[in-house]
What does this fold into?
Amino acid sequence: MQKTLDKLPKGSIMPINLNREAQVEWDKYLEASSIDDQIFHLERFLGVCVKHKGVEKHLAMAKTKLKKLKAQKAKLTQSKKGSGEKWLVPKGEDAQIAIIGNVNSGKSSVLNELARSDAAKVGSYPFTTVKPEVGSTTAKGARLQLVELPAVVEGSVKGEMSGKLVLAGIRNADCVLIAIDLSEDPVGQLQLILEELKKGKIRLNVTKPPVSIEKVGSGNIQVFNDYFFEGEGKDAVIEILRGNGYLNAIVRFHAPVSLDQFLDALDKSISYLPAIIIATKGDIEGSRQNYEKLLSFVEESNLKFQVIPTSVLQKEGFEELDEIIFNQLGKIRVFTRNAKGDIAERPIILRKGSTVENAIEVLSKKMLQYFRFTRIWGRSAKFDGEKVGLDRELQDGDVIQVFA
Ligand SMILES: Nc1nc2c(ncn2[C@@H]2O[C@H](COP(=O)(O)OP(=O)(O)OP(=O)(O)O)[C@@H](O)[C@H]2O)c(=O)[nH]1
Ligand SMILES: [Mg+2]
It folds into this structure.
């Protein structure tokens, strides 16, 4: 009890008329034992609390507490890190999301809006952010770590404005948000970013080429399947592989590919990442035309980016963004249910296509040995509480109860 009271800011008044969601988050904050969990629930509390006169004081206190906790956390992280600067933010959540863009494109503003915070410095001058800024948010239970990286500029790939570190930061992420400023030429901005990233061996929203190349001990180069890149045959494949130092290899084409894709398949250091474009400053005059220009360019160039128009000033475009980002990750959330019927608040995060077996592996490998069956609720269940085996494929939002 004393511990709980210690968490209340001095002079705090217990809120009496909070909305239900806010009360739940507040209670969880009081119960939380780690700084991370306290920050997490306080942020959630501030995000869901319905504002009215009766809670104003309490909200202000919660904000102050949150600031203090964040400062405490920053100090702790700093002392753990030592004096050396760390550019690669260690992955501490279910997925890491990089926020990138040209200078002044609104990256910090997007980070703050998503993290429901004002921790990242926003400035009308260029290069306000010179080191990664970190925040976090949740998408129906999945925790997303947000990392704003300093601007991508012409020459990033050559190291301009810490460009090499920026590119390494992008490669470290699971998903990329590209902030495109709608008050400026949107196509030029996107082209510059894609160009630098391409040279930096990062491909966005491009699936890995469907070619497997396996080096073997002997047998020359063997090419299977009838799919070769446009207009070329087996000989060209063998020639390119020889030119790249392959003597003996087995090559399998799982679908037709272009020459560029084939060359990408040879390079194991290329990163393939999902990405979304966040079109920023949608409140500024002329932004509508620029938004349409951007959409046409994306469509005509067959770039497969979802474009989300936003305005920080008008608080538009952010309501569903957490969920849109999660969907782009190619992952699913699976919740466990205990013997009492309580459903865990934090889901297990699995790759799309995972089965009950994959979920149990994450929970406890030992459980697999003693597995009897699982009951399942949600989209993969034919009916609520269906009894299934290890090979049932799971879908986002499923609930499982494992009997072992
Ligand atoms: N009108 C309007 N201005 C915005 C919006 N979002 C950001 N800005 C302004 O754009 C400028 C740059 O915003 P930041 O969020 O600092 O941009 P950034 O990309 O992080 O900038 P650097 O870190 O310097 O590269 C600031 O003056 C913001 O106030 C928006 O939605 N509408
Ligand atoms: Mg910034």
Summary: Residues 2-81 form one domain.
